[in-house]
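Mods, move this if it's the wrong board.
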Amino acid sequence: MIKEQEFIQSLKRIMNLSNVKHLYIALNYAGEMPSILLKISQLSSLIIHPSSLELMLSDKELCKYLNKMIKKLDIDRYSYIIKVKCLLK
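Not the wrong board. Structure tokens:
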């Protein structure tokens, strides 16, 4: 398995993280996401599995960031996306 820093560096080589506005987080990548999310300065829309969201919300710094940045949250519980739109305040 790729270490977290190697994963982030790989992403940075193929894309400019500061240009990412919409992100889909698959269930099996939730472990790498907290440090990556904090590097995405324009993120406003997030699609995520409920258990991945629960894991990430235990991080207070990340929770503050998500409350500030995310305008649209879609919770993907199954193989298709169930759109649950909510505004985090």
